[in-house]
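hey
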């Protein structure tokens, strides 16, 4: 006879009368929730385990096949991506190399042009300085010659005066010679001062030109 909910309830009430509420509840919990015909046996569990094992094996085989297929496809895609990236990297490297060569060539040409221009300007400055120095030397030579000529004329006049007035010259010879020496020394000091000022001016001009050349070279 199948065990129904009604019969279970009647059994619980009878057990409660005989054993009490707590003991009746404990005993009812030990009974299966369904009939004994519905309770699985060990053989049923073994059969279920075997059936589930076969299904798991088939699923595992299919999963292995799908994993192998996915791995193969991913490997091919990775190889294709690697090949494409390698080609792109080679193209970028080639393009950058060409651009670097072009920039280097352009910079070399500009540096050569700047060097040539600066060389020409330095040669022109050097030529001008040499001409200026030559003019200064020529002017100083002419002035020295004029001074020497004037001195010679003065000495000639002094000698002529001495010959005519030996007595007067002898009395004032020391003073006259002193004045002449002072004039000569003054002229020499003036010539030295002018020559020194000219040399300082030339050196200052050279320094300014060199500074300008260095500044122009740094700007380029």
């Amino acid at each position: 006879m199948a065990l129904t909910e009604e019969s279970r309830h009647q059994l619980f009430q009878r057990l409660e009368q005989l054993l009490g509420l707590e003991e009746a509840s404990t005993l009812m919990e030990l009974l299966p929730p369904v009939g004994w015909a519905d309770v699985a046996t060990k053989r049923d569990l073994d059969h279920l385990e075997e059936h589930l094992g076969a299904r798991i094996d088939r699923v595992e085989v299919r999963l292995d096949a799908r994993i192998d297929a996915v791995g193969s496809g991913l490997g091919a895609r990775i190889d294709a991506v690697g090949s494409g990236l390698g080609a792109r990297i080679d193209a970028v490297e080639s393009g950058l190399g060409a651009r670097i060569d072009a920039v280097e060539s352009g910079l070399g040409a500009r540096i050569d042009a700047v060097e040539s221009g600066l060389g020409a300007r330095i040669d022109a400055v050097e030529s001008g300085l040499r001409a200026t120095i030559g003019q200064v030397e020529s002017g100083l030579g002419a002035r020295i010659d004029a001074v020497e000529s004037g001195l010679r004329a003065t000495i000639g006049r002094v000698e002529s005066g001495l010959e005519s007035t030996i007595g007067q010259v002898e009395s004032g010879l020391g003073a006259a010679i002193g004045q002449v020496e002072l004039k000569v020394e003054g002229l020499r000091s003036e010539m030295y001062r002018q020559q020194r000022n000219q040399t300082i001016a030339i050196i200052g001009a050279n320094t300014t030109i060199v500074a300008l050349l260095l500044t122009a070279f740094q700007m380029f």
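The first helix runs from residue 5 to 19. The chain has a mean pLDDT of 82.
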